[in-house]
Amino acid sequence: MAENRYFYAVGRRKTASAQVRLYPEGTGQITVNGKPVNEYFTREQDLVEIYAPLRATGHEGTFDITVVVRGGGVTGQAGAVKHGIARALLKYDENLRPVLRRGGFLTRDPRMKERKKPGLKRARKAPTYTKR
Asked: Which end of the chain is more exposed for a tag (fewer CB within 10 A), N or C?
């Protein structure tokens, strides 16, 4: 196996997009935008979400992972990283598909912020109705 061989995938959620590289035979180190994962994502909930596909497949601590994530907010970026890791794991081993599918890691979360409509205050909030 080549020294710098990796498995690449893109994960997305809302407006966030994460480019993930999985390096096999690593130490379990995850780097996000040049920082350690627990420095970039400080909320415990986001860290649990990122590690979820690795835990589900039993590959926690087997890969070195580098991530470049852009767009969106903190939680959207964490979701994008999770999606990207799951897709990269699938490229690493196709036999992991049932486990990843069961955990819901391969499904892209389609929920987006709805656009504001004319005549309304926000996407759905209408101005207060007054009879007179």
From this structure: C
